[in-house]
Amino acid sequence: MKKANYVSKVVFETIVLFLTWILLTESFATSELIFGFLIALVISIGTADLFTEHGLAHLNPKRLFYLIIYIPYYLYQVIKANIQVAVIVLSPSLPIKPGIVKVKTNLKSDVGKLSLANSITLTPGTITMDVQDDELFVHWIKVEDESVEGATESIVSPFEKFLKEIFS
């Protein structure tokens, strides 16, 4: 994906910030919508180069489709991990095997890697400790496989297949 011009970045950031404003205020009063749009526009003019490199290209229907699918899938993974951690905590034998594993990602963009690292960290039982090039170091509450391939398959693959489509 090629880099966008400044106007494309401002328009995209204004849309994202304005939608965030609507979600946070939960109001469709005209005065609040105008105020929210103006705030979003002013912030976008000042920070568009920091927020995105690709501007309106992010609104590609294929990417939006995968993003919409990813959100419930991610929530399912979080719920599943919560249950697994609860079972571990409530078990009298406390069956944990904590450790740090190295995993690999095929994601190329920094935003994609950041999203992957945050998805892993926000899933109970795992914390991304560091990202170096295409490798992530993850603290895992119950290490099931210490090999890079096995840990990558267990930790990264569930998220990466969606993030690759969203951030490619």
Automatic annotation (TrEMBL):
Any Pfam family from its record, for instance, is MNHE
Its subcellular locations are: Cell membrane
Name of the protein in its database record: Na(+)/H(+) antiporter subunit E
Q: Would you tell me the Gene Ontology cellular component terms?
A: plasma membrane
By sequence similarity, the record places it as follows: Belongs to the CPA3 antiporters (TC 2.A.63) subunit E family.
The gene from which this protein is expressed is: mrpE
Q: How does it sit in the membrane?
A: Multi-pass membrane protein
The record's section on InterPro entries has: Cation_antiport_E
- A single MF term (Gene Ontology): monoatomic cation transmembrane transporter activity
Kindly list the residue ranges recorded as spanning the membrane.
6-24, 33-52, 64-90
Keywords from the named record: Cell membrane, Membrane, Transmembrane, Transmembrane helix
Q: What is its main location?
A: membrane
